[in-house]
Design a protein that fits this description.
single chain; alpha+beta; Fructose-1,6-Bisphosphatase, Chain A, domain 1; D-Maltodextrin-Binding Protein, domain 2; 2 domains; 8 helices; globular
C-alpha cells in the first residue's frame, strides 16, 4: 500500500515557526488544534451516509437557516476543541448568535472566526463541503510577534493583553489584519489549504495514518481563466452592469478566450477551491431578490475575508463590486454580509470595470 514520505502539516508549521526566531509558538499550537478538529469532522462527514448525522437538527441559526445535524456537530467540535486550547481569547461562528467565550483561565492572544460546515445544504446529496477559518490577534495584544503577516497600519492603539477573555471588538477587524486563514474541504479527499501571509499551501489527508501531507506547495492561481461560477438563477435580480458582464463572458470571441465555461456547484468552498487550483472567477453579487439582504448573501468574517486572504496570497483578488476590496472592509457586526467577486486577478479586474460602469 502507498505511504507518502513527504512533509506533514505539523512539520510545515514548525518550519514556518523556525523562520521566525521571535515566535512564541502560540499560532503553531492554534493551527494544530484546528487540524485535530478538522480530522474529527472529516471522519464524521465520511460516515454521514451510515451514521445518524444526516438531515435537520430542528434548530434555526442566526441567519434564519435550518441547521443540519452535521452543521451542529462541526460547530460543537470546533468550539470544544478551541475553548481550552490556551491560544484563543474569543471565537465567533456562523451558527452562533453572539461571541463564543473560551474557558476561564485558558485565554490566549488570538481570535477565531469560523464557518463550521460551509455548503451544508448539499450534505444530503454528497457534494463537497468545508470548514473555513480566520485568525486575528486580539486588539488588546501587545504586539508580541509570531510567524504570519502583521498589519503595519498606523493610528491603532494596541494595549497589553490581560487574563480576561476577548470581546466582539477583538473579532471585528478587517481582513488585512488576519495572521492566518484557510479552509478544509471534505470531498473525494480531505484537503487543508491555508496561509499565514507567506504563500498558500495545500495538504491532503491520508486517512490510513491520520496525517495531512503537503500535496500542493506554493499554490498560485492562474492570472486569467476561462471559467466563471455564479448562480444564474438570480440573473433577473442583478443590476444591469452585472447582467452585461455575464452576457459578455458568454459571447463568442475566440481571440479573447470567450465564451467562458460555467462551473457552479453551489458550495462556496468547493467552487472557490476548484477556481484556486484550475483558475476561475466566483461571483455572488448583491441583488434585489431579498430586501432583507441588500448587501449580499455571504458573510464577511466567516467566508469572504478568509478566502480573500487566501486568494490574494495566491496571486488573485477579491472585491465587493461596489468599489471596495474585501480585505479593507471594517466589519461593523459579527454577521455582516457582503457581495463577493473573487478569483483570477485579470478576471476580477475586468469584472470591476463592468460593475463600475467603465465598460
Amino acid at each position: 500500500m502507498y505511504r507518502p514520505l513527504g512533509i506533514t502539516v505539523s512539520r510545515h508549521i514548525m518550519d514556518l515557526q523556525r523562520m521566525h526566531p521571535e515566535a512564541t509558538g502560540d499560532l503553531s499550537g492554534l493551527l494544530n488544534e484546528l487540524i485535530v478538529a478538522a480530522k474529527t469532522i472529516s471522519a464524521e462527514v465520511n460516515m454521514a451516509g451510515l451514521a445518524d448525522v444526516l438531515g435537520m437538527s430542528g434548530k434555526t441559526n442566526i441567519q434564519g437557516e435550518e441547521v443540519q445535524k452535521l452543521d451542529e456537530f462541526s460547530n460543537n467540535t470546533i468550539k470544544k476543541r478551541m475553548a481550552r486550547c490556551g491560544y484563543v481569547c474569543v471565537m465567533t461562528s456562523e451558527e452562533e448568535d453572539d461571541i463564543i467565550p473560551v474557558s476561564e483561565g485558558y485565554e490566549g492572544k488570538y481570535t477565531l472566526a469560523f464557518d463550521p460546515l460551509d455548503g451544508s445544504s448539499n450534505i444530503d446529496v454528497n457534494v463537497s463541503i468545508g470548514t473555513i477559518f480566520s485568525i486575528h490577534r486580539r486588539k488588546s495584544d501587545d504586539g508580541e510577534p509570531s510567524f504570519g503577516r502583521r498589519s503595519t497600519d498606523s493610528g491603532d492603539e494596541w494595549q497589553s493583553a490581560g487574563d480576561e477573555g476577548g470581546s466582539a471588538e477583538d473579532l471585528l477587524q478587517k481582513g488585512s489584519r488576519q495572521v492566518a486563514a484557510g479552509y478544509i474541504i471534505y470531498g473525494s479527499s480531505t484537503m487543508l489549504v491555508f496561509t499565514t501571509g507567506e504563500g498558500v499551501h495545500g495538504f491532503t489527508l491520508d486517512p490510513s495514518v491520520g496525517e495531512f501531507y503537503l500535496s500542493h506547495p506554493d499554490i498560485k492561481i492562474p492570472g486569467k481563466s476561462k471559467y466563471f461560477s455564479v448562480n444564474e438563477g438570480n440573473y433577473t435580480y442583478w443590476d444591469e452592469n452585472m447582467r452585461r458582464y455575464i452576457d459578455y463572458l458568454k459571447e463568442q470571441d475566440l481571440e479573447g478566450g470567450r465564451p467562458y465555461s460555467s462551473r457552479y456547484i453551489g458550495s462556496l468552498v468547493a467552487d472557490f477551491h476548484r477556481n484556486l487550483i484550475s483558475g476561475g472567477i466566483f461571483l455572488y453579487p448583491k441583488d434585489n431578490k431579498n430586501p432583507a439582504k441588500p448587501s449580499g448573501k455571504l458573510r464577511l468574517l466567516y467566508e469572504a475575508a478568509p478566502l480573500a486572504f487566501v486568494v490574494e496570497q495566491a496571486g488573485g483578488r477579491a472585491i465587493t463590486g461596489d468599489g471596495r476590496d474585501i480585505l479593507e472592509i471594517e466589519p461593523q457586526e459579527l454577521h455582516q454580509r457582503v457581495p463577493l467577486i473573487i478569483g483570477c486577478r485579470y478576471d476580477v479586474d475586468e469584472a470591476e470595470d463592468f460593475l463600475s460602469g467603465k465598460r
